[in-house]
Amino acid sequence: MRTTRYRAGTRSNDAAAVSDGCRSGQSKPGNATRSSLEEMRAYVDHQGCLMEYIVRALDDPAAARCGHCRNDGGAVISAAIDPALLVEATKYLRRTALPIPPRRRWPPDAVTGLRGTIVPCNMPGMALSIYGDAGWGHLVREGKYIYGAFDDAIVDAAVELVSREWTQNPAPTWVTSIPSSSRPALVRDFAISLAARLALPYRDVLGSASGPSQKEMENSVQQLRNVRAKVSLVGEVPTEAVLLVDDIVDSGWTLAYAGWLLGRAGAIAVYPFALAGGSRGDA
Prior knowledge:
Layout: H1 13-24, H2 29-45, H3 50-57, H4 83-93, E1 98-100, E2 125-130, H5 137-147, H6 152-165, E3 174-177, H7 186-197, E4 206-208, H8 220-230, E5 231-233, E6 242-249, H9 253-264, E7 270-277
Parallel strand pairs: 2-7, 3-6, 6-7
Antiparallel strand pairs: 1-2, 4-5
């Protein structure tokens, strides 16, 4: 067997080549990344058969036209959107109201005196949209965080849902809203407009102290403690059914606690209504 020996201070040709390659930068990851990017750009811009291009790039001698890709007789899918389909899709999303199931039990050891079954609890509620979706949800997000007011189209949609698509028995005879110390006019103004369109009186009966938002809370115990520290009764509650309005609902504890306050004060039924659900929002 042939053995190759190297004297101290010498190196093989292979080792020298590797070392030289490292010094020249040929094996650096950045160069490899740039080379790959150039290959991808060339592929995208290639006017011939795309399959043949890939096979040739892999040094396959059997490279040939495929007859199926977009450049070689295959079907081309248009990126244009049919306006009529877009309208129908938006209408479908705008019919996607969400139920708001009532909270029925207090979280254990959250608040002294609140334990077991919630009595009285809210009636089943409704949310107009999924937060941020292409139906009403994106308008809710923009209204809350960009414009500071909700579009009149959302009022129209809310009137349609509450008055025609949502059966309530007994029906609400007045409207109130979840207060906010950071944006006091946002939900209140919307609720006043909704009440006027429904021909119902609006009443301010709930107040809010300043404090962290519900979305900063980690669990039901923290959420209930937080809302209890902030929300309180500040006005006389009519002994009739009420529509309780909020902008965004997620955990549901703000609506649950506020509804419980209203029920204890005499409201015979509390129907929560939110503009959007499912966002890790403030309710």
